[in-house]
Amino acid sequence: MGGFPNFAISFSIISILTGVPLLYGHGLRAGGPYVMTVGWPLVTIFSLLIAASMAEIASAIPTAGAMYHWSTFLGGRGYGWLTGWLNLLGQYSITCGITYGCAEFVAPLVGISPENRWQILLLFAGLLLSHGILNHFYVRLVSFLNIVSAWYHLISVTVFSCVLLAFAKLQHVSFLFTTGFSEVAFRESAQALNAPWIWLFCLGLLQAQWTFTGYDASAHISEETKLPRVNAPWGIFLSVAISGIFGYGLVLALTLAIPDLSAAATVQGQSVFMFIVEQSLGPQMGQVVMWGVALAMWFCGLSSLTANARMIYAFSRDGALPWQKVWARVHPKWRTPTAATWQAVVVAFVLALYSEAFSVIISIATISLCLAYALPIALKMRARWQGRWRPSFDGPWSLGRLGPWVNGLAVLWTLFISVLFMAPPNQQTGTTMLVVGAALAFYWFVLGERNRFKGPQSLATEEAMLTTQAQAVVEVR
Amino acid sequence: MAMGTWVGIGVIFCATFTMAALFDMARRSVDKARREGRLQAGWTLRDR
């Protein structure tokens, strides 16, 4: 696998056409168009710092276990185990969030009322099933679809943004800096939460922050990538940077095309994104765009399930999950981790049954994944501070002397958003994270996992790593 | 212009600058490693 396929899988999981349409209303209702115009680049800055810090470690330690292997090497097996579980929890929730969001988005297009939760759950189960079947039987097709998905996202976002700018009646540029969707409605929402506008603005950042997750996939497939110490870090960094640029173009075009701000923010029975597109492009053109976006969400869900199943497989192979032998089995005929795939499907479905609020599922996904990203970064800072990490350990993709500053800011941002997305009105996220934390502590300290878990056993064997690198060097020369 | 607009323009400028600076730093380090023949250098299991 070369550099582009490595970039493509992360870019497909970030999927601008999933994050922006599903959470556009959340951002707009929280702080008005200002959340789109300023919130998106603000989150892009810090996501780039996290991505660059991860890219540096991926260049130094290009193993398929990625974050939980990095944490093990940098801090010990306990940190590795914790990072692995956070990563796994994040992947379950993100698989659930993407596909459940897709079901909610498609529901009005096929005549299902958004209020009918059971029919949406049925649609959600059908979509999950389609992803499960493809991941079970057709792994080569899934790999091909990842490449198609990357091109599809780049082309369709460009075309869609241009169509909006060309055919919609646009607002004046100053509209982009509007800080509330209407005086009355803003006051109501501020009073309901008993919070100032800046707090609502921060809550609206969830839209962009959720979009910028899943780019660790480039690190997970580093052992299958040529010249992994260069291509895997570029895959991580560029998938965030390019999503930031294209996503910003899309949110700005969409915001400028809002026909009536108050009506858009208070719309009932359909998504805000759908309302803006149908009002500005007409019902027929709007339907075409909706189905195009739904296809992108389906692609994103497919890639997410692939990454989720690989994580379950790798973590079980290292003995970290109960009934590990079942999940670590590769089907002899289809050459895929079939049990791990169906486990991911079932857990994603159960998670949707548990949480009634879409924002809770995506808050759990965002917090868990960001913590799993930040933990090895913090451990690397500690190792450098203690003199255990020498400059010679850095790979070719390095930030040099600025590295520690970038790492520090990335960790601080992660702590900030973790607290932010557990605060009201996302208390269910906070409660869930506390329960999960307590359960993990009980499993590690009381049930004896501390003595049983030996750390990664398959450490991307040195021979395999060196062979891949040697092949890559020969090809470069 | 209102203060919020200036803050917004500042954030957009910072995002552009951060992206360009990080990209440039990484590109330089990879180019340097390529010139020095260190593309496969980095942490190994022996460094554990």
What is the strand and helix layout of this fold?
The complex is a heterodimer of chains A (477) and B (48).
Chain A: H1 3-14, H2 16-31, H3 33-60, H4 67-75, H5 77-106, H6 117-137, H7 139-167, H8 183-193, H9 197-204, H10 206-211, H11 217-220, H12 228-256, H13 261-265, H14 272-281, H15 283-317, H16 324-327, H17 338-354, H18 358-385, H19 403-420, H20 427-446, H21 449-452, H22 462-476
Helix pairs in contact in A: 1-7, 1-12, 1-15, 2-3, 2-9, 2-12, 3-12, 3-18, 3-19, 4-5, 4-18, 5-6, 5-15, 5-17, 5-18, 6-15, 6-17, 7-12, 7-15, 14-15, 15-17, 18-19, 18-20
Chain B: H1 3-35
Write structural notes for this entry.
The complex is a heterodimer of chains A (477) and B (48). Chain A is 75% helix and 0% strand. Chain A has 477 residues and is an all-alpha fold. Chain A is globular, with a radius of gyration of 22 Å. Chain B is mainly alpha-helical and 48 residues long. Chain B contains 1 helix and no strands. Chain B has one helix at residues 3-35. The A-B interface holds A 34, 37-38, 41-42, 44-45, 48-49, 52, 55, 59-62, 73, 174, 176-177, 179, 227, 229-230, 233-234, 237, 241, 244-245, 392-400, 402, 406, 459, 462, 465-466, 469-470, 472-473, 476 and B 2, 4-5, 7-8, 11-12, 14-15, 18-19, 22-23, 25-26, 29-30, 33-34, 38-48.
What are the salient characteristics of this protein?
heterodimer; A: 477 residues; mainly alpha; 75% helix; globular; disordered C terminus; B: 1 helix; elongated
- Quick one: biggest sheet of chain B? none
| Average pLDDT reading of chain A | 87
Report the helical percentage of chain B. Answer: 55-70%
Query: Greatest contact pair?
Result: A-B, 49 and 30 residues
Shape of chain A: globular
Q: What gyration radius of chain A follows from the Cα positions, in whole Å?
A: 22 Å
**What is the count of DSSP helices of chain B, taking H or I runs of 4+ residues?**
1
**Helix/strand class of chain B:** mainly alpha
Number of strands of chain B: 0
Percent strand of chain A equals under 5%
Structural class of chain A: mainly alpha
Distance between the termini of chain B: 56 Å
Record field, number of beta strands of chain A: 0
Q: Report the portion of residues of chain B in β strands.
A: under 5%
